[in-house]
Design goal:
TATA-Binding Protein, 3 domains, Alpha-D-Glucose-1,6-Bisphosphate, Chain A, domain 3, alpha/beta, globular, 21 strands, five-stranded mixed beta sheet, seven-stranded mixed beta sheet
Length: 470
């Protein structure tokens, strides 16, 4: 059974991520494009450094070509944001990236993008699933890859320079050039090295990189830029006196930051800093969009400027849709993905890094100074997280308790209201909040809580965990 989640289809290599399933996904996409009458507009295809990604991209191209669908195949490993950008600039009907993003090395997957470079919504992925899971081997149409290239049905492209030039046109590169920053980049064995090096060296920054070789095992780490996985970056930034450390996840759509003191800057703070900067230093105007598990500091920043912050379910497709509806300045999530108005309709860790470097140079302030400036104005917003595992057979009890009976613990804080938009989120009158959501892939309940101190946020999590008895 092939199922799409909020980040596309992901599966363990050799178990469910197999050639048979990969070509089924490709055939279902071809069938969908033909049914929609958009086969002639073609599809952009890219892949990352994971094991099997390059071969999977060829298998997909062979099937699409066998269905006479034009394929624009990025001929080298590509960041997912580059694929989305190219769907937008070429005007293709669809795009696909072979990646499992920040998942462990044993996973791979496929992300699907629709017109304009947007993440495919639930309606599209449901239609794909319905076709995929009834396809047989006899339904697959494929041609040899080399023959497809020779005939022109598959066209090898390299849109990297257009992507870089577009980012350069959107940032204040002259301000960066005047600062002579020293930056250490950790691509986490992923695909951001070339883009970040090119951007930052064009801006006259001194750049060094670590963990930049081709290692499908990601050095034994999760390719996700968290405080834990960026410890080596943190050590080197401090020891070698860099101005900044930048980490990106496996497909470069998420960002992690270490400042010059070695402090890890949480993605919530990165997004808040950039929104604050765009409103107060660049004089942009417009709302913000965040998912339901992202800091409410964004709400305070928006309100201070007479703007609004919109809350949407988890999944970047919801963020990009609401951004388009409201002409929002910025949209993002607490896991490290964001975009801004005028850029692509999906998250981009490479662009976010460039904008953050611009912020440091234009304001003349270190990240710590900017964070203190915001804290003095808006107070403290501290988020804590927990993943609570449970036995699979216990899920029915938890679903009944939380979503059917809608029972809650006796929290120490007074409840203002409760939302079931995505999971269960409790809003308290002191502006604290807590949310619990089931993982789509594992027997876990993911909990996020925010308050004016780590202790108070942790207390909310403890109260919920004890109530759930897991």
């Amino acid at each position: 059974m092939i199922q799409f989640g909020t980040g596309g289809w992901r599966a363990i290599i050799g178990e469910n991520f197999t050639k048979d399933n990969i070509i089924k996904v490709a055939q279902s996409l071809a069938d969908l494009m033909k049914k929609e009458g958009v086969a002639d507009r073609g599809l952009v295809l890219g892949y990352d450094k994971r094991f099997l990604s390059d071969r999977a991209a060829k298998w997909i191209a062979e099937v699409l070509a066998g269905n006479q669908i034009k394929v624009y195949l990025i001929r080298r490993v590509a960041p997912t944001p580059l694929v989305m950008f190219t769907v937008k600039t070429l005007g293709t009907a669809y795009g696909a990236a072979v990646t499992a993003s920040h998942n462990p090395a044993e996973y791979n997957g496929i992300k699907i993008f629709t017109e304009g470079g947007k993440d495919a919504d639930r309606e599209i992925t449901d239609r794909l699933e319905a076709v995929i899971n009834r396809l047989t081997a006899a339904d697959i149409k494929a041609v040899d890859f080399d023959e497809a290239v020779a005939s022109g049905v598959v066209q090898l492209i390299y849109p990297f320079n257009d992507y870089i030039d577009t980012i350069i046109s959107m940032i204040d590169i002259d301000s960066i050039r005047r600062k002579d920053l020293r930056i250490l980049v950790d691509p986490m064995y992923g695909v951001s090295k070339t883009a970040l090096q090119t951007l930052l060296m064009t801006a006259r920054c001194e750049i060094d990189t670590i963990h930049d070789s081709h290692d499908p095992g990601f050095g034994g780490r999760m390719p996700s830029p968290s405080e834990e996985t960026l410890r080596h970056l943190r050590t080197l930034v401090v020891e070698r006196k860099y101005d900044l450390g930048i980490g990106t996840d496996g497909d470069a759509d998420r960002l992690g930051i270490i400042d010059e003191t070695g402090a890890y800057i949480h993605p919530n703070m990165i997004m808040s800093l950039l929104y604050y900067y765009l409103l107060n230093y660049k004089n942009w105007r417009g709302p913000a969009v965040r998912n339901i598990a992202t800091t409410h500091l964004l709400d305070a920043i928006a309100a201070d400027a007479g703007e609004k912050c919109y809350e949407v379910p988890v999944g970047f497709k919801h963020i990009s849709k609401k951004m388009a509806e409201t002409d929002a300045v910025i949209g993002g999530e607490s896991s490290g993905g964001l975009t801004i108005r005028g850029h692509i309709k999906g998250k981009d860790g490479i662009f976010a890094a460039a904008l953050l470097v611009e912020m440091i140079c234009v304001t003349g302030k270190r990240l710590g100074q900017m964070m203190r400036e915001m804290e003095e104005k808006f107070g403290v917003y501290q988020m804590e997280e927990a993943n609570l595992s449970f036995h699979p057979e216990d899920k029915a009890r938890l679903v009944q308790l939380l979503f059917e009976e809608k029972k809650l613990p006796q929290f120490h804080a007074e409840i203002d209201h409760v939302s079931y938009l995505d999971g269960v989120k409790v809003y308290f009158k002191d502006n604290s909040w807590i949310i619990a959501r089931f993982s789509g892939t594992e027997p876990l309940i993911r909990i996020f809580a925010e308050s004016d101190s780590a202790a108070r946020a942790t207390r909310l999590i403890t109260e919920l965990r004890e109530f759930l008895q897991i």
